[in-house]
Amino acid sequence: MPEDNAIDRDQILWKDRKRHFGMPISFTRYELTSVCLTVRRGFFSTTTDETMLYRILDTRLHRTLGQKIFGVGTIILYTADRTCPELPIRNVRKSEEVHRLLGHLIEAERDRKAITARELYGSTDYGVDRDGDGIPDHLQ
Questions:
Q1: What is the CATH number of domain 2-118?
Q2: What are the angstrom distances between the C-alpha of 57 and each of 10, 42, 84, 116?
């Protein structure tokens, strides 16, 4: 049955494109599974960023008046990933529902891996004491 679990984890639960004036006329695509978020940007040259859900520390939903008029919003993810510590999911429709879905999936993935947020905070440079003097490096 491990193959069934692998298939479930690879199933796309949500996908969308970055939207302009509410229309999906962009080459930025978002895909969400139960274990990771994938962002693909570009047409001729494509860049793919993949962020594991358990590494997301915090989320924020931002909607300007213009975004509200066109029914979109921006979700900003703060992660423990060195390559992409702040990952915006820009101008996606049903942003409030997607924000809630992300929150549930992040917690479920942390529970599945038995990871607490406290363990993730040590994975960034914030609060790290490399020289052993008892003072975190960011305060020196």
A1: 2.30.29.30
A2: 22, 27, 12, 10
